[in-house]
Amino acid sequence: MLTPRSFAFIACRLMAIYLLVQAIDFAAIFAWSLMRLELPDLWMASSPSAIIGLIGLVTFFVLWFGAGPISRCITPKIAQENSSEDWTQQGLLSVGIVLIGIWIIAVNLPGLVGYIYVFADDVVVDPKGIIELVLSLVLGVFCLVGAHGLTRFVGKMRRW
């Protein structure tokens, strides 16, 4: 029987595979830019791809090898005490909120690195994109940190 903890474990591993594929994609962009550019332009043009790929690779290792501890942290305490317990509405909601938070952060983190390089190059950028990125990252962190509290709030509102 699939428990909330085993579901969270599988989801962490799937997210790790997704991030590995993204890291390989950025590594290909980095290699392509190495072949096309002259030496003076090389660093500013190719380093964002390399750093984004490196962040994806590090996150892959964290999620892949840390799937057990992460799944223990994100599943509710009740589900941990009785591992044979079936899904509860609170358990499913809590795990879902945390996984959505991980997803939001993983999708928006490369954009943050891109903006860091844009700011370093003193290029004028549209503030709408930066605000959207920052708010998305804040929402992702809120989903990670406040999942249990949000689950309790929804449970009270729905009278679970």
Relevant terms:
mainly alpha, 85% helix, 160 residues
Walk me through what this model shows.
The chain has seven helices and no strands. Helix 1 packs parallel to helix 5 and helix 2 packs antiparallel against helix 5. With 160 residues, it is mostly helical. It has helices at 4-36, 39-65, 67-74, 77-81, 89-120, 127-145, 147-158.
Task: Briefly characterize the structure.
With 160 residues, the protein is mainly α. 85% of the residues lie in helices and 0% in strands.
Major sheet attributes: none
Tally of contiguous helical segments? 7
Summarize the amount of helix as a percent range: over 70%
Shape: flat
How far the N terminus sits from the C terminus, by CA atoms, comes to: 23 Å
Beta-sheet strand percentage?
under 5%
